[in-house]
Amino acid sequence: MDNGPDAIGIFDSGIGGLTVLRRIVERLPGESTVYLGDTARVPYGTKSPDTVRRYAMACARVLLGRGIKMLVVACNTASAHAVEYLQDALDVPVVGVVEPGARAAASCTVSGRIGVIGTRGTVASGVYERAIAAIRPDTRVWSRACPLLVPLAEEGWVRGPVPEQVVAAYLSELLEHEIDTLVLGCTHYPLLSDIIRAAVGPSVQIVDSAEATAAVVEEVLVAAGIASSGGNAQRTYLVSDAPESFAKTGREFLNHGIDDVEWVDF
Amino acid sequence: MDNGPDAIGIFDSGIGGLTVLRRIVERLPGESTVYLGDTARVPYGTKSPDTVRRYAMACARVLLGRGIKMLVVACNTASAHAVEYLQDALDVPVVGVVEPGARAAASCTVSGRIGVIGTRGTVASGVYERAIAAIRPDTRVWSRACPLLVPLAEEGWVRGPVPEQVVAAYLSELLEHEIDTLVLGCTHYPLLSDIIRAAVGPSVQIVDSAEATAAVVEEVLVAAGIASSGGNAQRTYLVSDAPESFAKTGREFLNHGIDDVEWVDF
To answer: For the domain bounded by B4-96+211-263, which CATH number is listed?
Structure first.
């Protein structure tokens, strides 16, 4: 199935990037999309930068083979390690999730005190600190790795005392720093946004990188003159392993069913 | 570095199998060991049986290249899907962790009511149910996937209210079935054995597959006449990604430091 050179290609190490796809589809319903979840190699967060770059390039090649006009790296770890590398190597525009999230945080904060939560890989990379400092050097950023939030989201364990306590434990240190902005630096975390919002209280703004990324995707399409003129938008889903379980869990992330998931070997 | 044809080869998708290595070394201190953590592809639990078999064979080949005399599949998912396949294909004895754990559970239980906890992949495979039923058809087995326990163990978050509540939530249903034996069907779980023991109370026996597996390894070595006559036991550690982080987290699992971790590409 070829979506023609008119589709937006989106990849993630697994299922989390569907929260980014969801925001892109909400904002740009006329654009066709090809989503690739590299479920055979999930998660990227525990892997080395070199390995992540190799996997990201493999994902990009699969999507380019489907004739995409733009590439969205809907994975924080791959955004941290591979966006510049892909931008240099590929002929289509490449957008990651880190830069848009960092930009949104830099505009949201009043006190200049920003918290970031993400996987161990994303936090260890320091990518949000660097990206935010490049935009607004007058800010301070505190980060916290939250390895339990991905399995909580994938379990659908998104309310009740257990996720509340886990979230409270992870956020307590950040809140002591009196942050006024919190970046959800992992594409799984929007599923837990209700309890994260409750934990941080009304004085902290939450930045959802997925939303910020969808806005940047629109900007880039328009600026490059390659936005779709409308028509019959198609949704294609590719995975490198276990299509059934992707379709099942994906429903939670996308807020609607996924009809057809294609297995690709690469 | 070649450990000669006298080493025991042990592999896992990552770090969890070190709990098995630990028990093997405690029981058989004179045996050299080569441990391989397939950290580039961790975790196996979310992957399809075919993919797991392919990865398991790749791990076995790396270890055979080091001249091992026996192979231990120290990963429940790979034991579920690949042990028979490896036994058919390889010339050295192959031992998984499921069969020894199932055997120990079948001998422990008095009431015949057994609980099993493991990753989603292990539980979905039904491998413990089948293995226990094959030994003692008069038993009943209830299983529960506990996806949060691996990240808890890897975080070192092994005591306090959060892991206690997570463990209690996972075990409540099993305890309603009045089990008298609980199998830790994931090599990470021995790190949480204190709070698991507290949660189930004194009337439930806990079966640690790692311990049971080490006992079977000894039986097989002796039966095949290939037990080491003693001497200078060597410890070799191989990983497919991120050797530093393996060495760091591995200390918790092994209860002593790891000097040297070698990266292998396969």
So the answer is: 3.40.50.1860
